[in-house]
Amino acid sequence: MIIHFTNNLENIVSILKSSSFKLGYCCEYFGEKDKIISNAAHPMVCFSEYTDSELESKHITYGEYAIAMNKKWAVHKGLSPVMYVEKNSQAAVGIATLLKARQKHGKDAIPKNLRLPIMQVKCFTKHETGYNSYFNCNDFCFKNENEWRYVPTKKQIEGAYISLNKTTFYSDKEKHNKKLEPFPLIFDYSDINSIYVKTDEDVKTINTEFKQLPFEVKLSKWQTRA
What we know:
Elements: E1 2-6, H1 9-18, E2 20-21, E3 24-32, E4 35-49, H2 52-55, E5 59-60, E6 65-69, H3 71-76, E7 80-81, E8 83-85, H4 90-103, H5 112-123, E9 125-127, E10 129-132, E11 137-141, E12 147-150, E13 164-165, H6 166-171, H7 173-178, E14 185-186, E15 192-197, H8 200-209, E16 216-219, E17 223-224
Parallel strand pairs: 5-17, 8-9, 15-16
Antiparallel strand pairs: 1-4, 1-6, 2-14, 3-4, 4-12, 4-13, 6-15, 7-12, 10-11
């Protein structure tokens, strides 16, 4: 299953009512060894890949509520698992070299037709271990999250940026995220595998508000990270 986690029932209801996941810019850094080469925000929706039985033994980062989608839908929509790279590896050095080349201007600049492909690779690449801004901690193991991402093409968001400098993004987060609102990641109810909520009362709420849903509403049994 490809699972989108969230932290309250209201978000689950909103997603179901709109039959879509909202895009939002997320800041991601990449570097080699201890040097940051690129720190930028990219439009995305994030998921994790777990089986139902695996969830009970997991510590989940982003909440006690979730919508599990079937993998066929994820592949059809262009989602991809994240490529995890150890920061001291040859792979990290190689990607960092491409990012540095992309940042150059003038006669040393790379060909224009290669600038977007480099950023497309960066959008789906993450350090295996690194700084987690959500918990404000270093040496967080991102690989345990088994992340999948949806990152739209420029055409899908009608020319909006797929990469924004971190400083530029934080100068007006609301403005930049608002530009993505017309382009959510859409699904049909038949694409949903199951819904996970926190309490029996939550189960009743979903079953009452969304009658005859073709999927099961379950209680979440995983642990959340403190």
